[in-house]
Amino acid sequence: MTTSTSAITPVVATLRAEVAGPVLLPEDPGFATATVGFQTYGPHRPDVAVLATTTADVRAAVRVAADHDLPVAVLNSGHGVPPRYTGGLLVATRDLAGVRVDPGRRVAWIEAGAPWSAVIEAAGAHGLAPLSGSTPHVGAVGYTLGGGLGLLARRFGYAADHVREIELVTADGTTRSVTARTHPDLFWASRGGGGNFGVVTGMEVDLFPVPTLYGGGLFYDAPLVGEALRAWRDWTSAAPEEITTSVALVPFPDVDGVPDPLRGRHVLHVRIAATLDVATGDEVIAPLRAVGPRLLDAVGELPYTDSATICSDPTEPMGYQTTNLFLDGLPDQALSGVLDRVGPGAPSPQVLEIRHLGGALRRPPAEANCVSHRDAEYLLGLTRRTPPDATPEQAAALRAPHAEVRAALRPWSTGASYLNFLDGDGADTERVRSAYTPENYRRLADTKARWDPRNLFRHNRNVPPTAPTSPN
Ligand SMILES: Cc1cc2nc3c(=O)[nH]c(=O)nc-3n(C[C@H](O)[C@H](O)[C@H](O)COP(=O)(O)OP(=O)(O)OC[C@H]3O[C@@H](n4cnc5c(N)ncnc54)[C@H](O)[C@@H]3O)c2cc1C
């Protein structure tokens, strides 16, 4: 709900007195660019945006918002926007983007706005790598708060499993150093609980001695897509933990910028990242190459600093709608259900991705966190491009195949979702609930009631606080 001009004016005056960074109203130049990032569909309309330049700015913004009962949203890269909201205060963190690496302790301190690319570069200078994901443009903090399923996930687990300290501005406007020792409940909940517990101004994460990878992509043309998909599924059953793979069905447009062999083709892209030497890696993926000729085969040794080339995710802002589900298995019937609806020749071009899970993802971290559903075998995601100005009816038509694919996969779906891939209006309360086991969800809601009982931080993938129980 929008706050009236008479109510917002004193808020803005206080913010401008207390915050060093720009404080913008919707009519101010720069407001539109400050409030939109990668995702351009489903615009948000906060009453006021604070472009934080220091952690003190974040603290002041949260305190002022709390004093005036204004909900607080956080925007960094815009790769995981929450359901559409109107009103409240937006804290934009992209100018708070420092990264410090301590090579001796193999850790990085990452400020709220740093993209993975900055961490990869800083760590790479010391032969180290973070647990980053498919694209280095995603914000490291936002990604880690939601779990963080990375290129080397089967080898090292979730990024949230390797956080040492979180600097968090809680709903009372206090900055807290959150560790397993200082605030066990917040530490457990923040690693996997998204932005529900405050604004993170920085975090310390582990780095790993991975200067180079065995990795890249294999691309199969439409006639081989079904066979390659089945071969990949069979191969995953015995793949070692050192190798993490995913497959994507991608309908490439026939436009400049798409590599020539892929232009205008609907392909299967097998994405590979492994901590293996080239000879062992080639041996391990031989059954995938044996399927037949590839349009492109670019798997080999590459520096971790080039790891963005493995998935080649889009980098320019775009509008899209997504859905995702964890799966226990992928029998032929499940694969046919997917291919019939979104494979080559299907009426509705969608990007479909299936990630192979297992390995270290199954094991709880040394310090438990709320990341759930560790037993699932695969994670499936669907993405449909959607113009920023699509009407609700147009948007619904574009995402219709999502429901069809979900229905076709019901027998093999665990019913659970992955928090980080819940986006826009698809990140409603029920889908967020499905990202956790019932026990973890209850514990998250209780933690929320303790630290943010008014749900100040609700413009996110929200876990509402447990309702207070009556004293009688
Ligand atoms: C192309 C693409 C590739 C992706 N690849 C992966 C992947 O490989 N693995 C994976 O796990 N995820 C992946 N994601 C999902 C991504 O990690 C999540 O959507 C994540 O939330 C994005 O964080 P952000 O800060 O970049 O985005 P934003 O949209 O700016 O933020 C998303 C949400 O994160 C929370 N948040 C961000 N920063 C803070 C903060 N400082 N304090 C408190 N809350 C905060 C807020 O609730 C905010 O609404 C991908 C997304 C896209 C679009």
UniProtKB/TrEMBL annotation:
<dbReference type="InterPro" id="IPR050416">
    <property type="entry name" value="FAD-linked_Oxidoreductase"/>
</dbReference>
<dbReference type="InterPro" id="IPR006094">
    <property type="entry name" value="Oxid_FAD_bind_N"/>
</dbReference>
<dbReference type="InterPro" id="IPR016166">
    <property type="entry name" value="FAD-bd_PCMH"/>
</dbReference>
<dbReference type="InterPro" id="IPR016169">
    <property type="entry name" value="FAD-bd_PCMH_sub2"/>
</dbReference>
<keyword id="KW-0285">Flavoprotein</keyword>
<dbReference type="Pfam" id="PF08031">
    <property type="entry name" value="BBE"/>
</dbReference>
<keyword id="KW-0560">Oxidoreductase</keyword>
<keyword id="KW-0274">FAD</keyword>
<dbReference type="InterPro" id="IPR016167">
    <property type="entry name" value="FAD-bd_PCMH_sub1"/>
</dbReference>
<feature type="domain" description="FAD-binding PCMH-type">
    <location>
        <begin position="41"/>
        <end position="210"/>
    </location>
</feature>
<dbReference type="InterPro" id="IPR012951">
    <property type="entry name" value="BBE"/>
</dbReference>
<protein>
    <submittedName>
        <fullName>FAD/FMN-containing dehydrogenase</fullName>
    </submittedName>
</protein>
<dbReference type="Pfam" id="PF01565">
    <property type="entry name" value="FAD_binding_4"/>
</dbReference>
<dbReference type="InterPro" id="IPR036318">
    <property type="entry name" value="FAD-bd_PCMH-like_sf"/>
</dbReference>
<comment type="similarity">
    <text>Belongs to the oxygen-dependent FAD-linked oxidoreductase family.</text>
</comment>
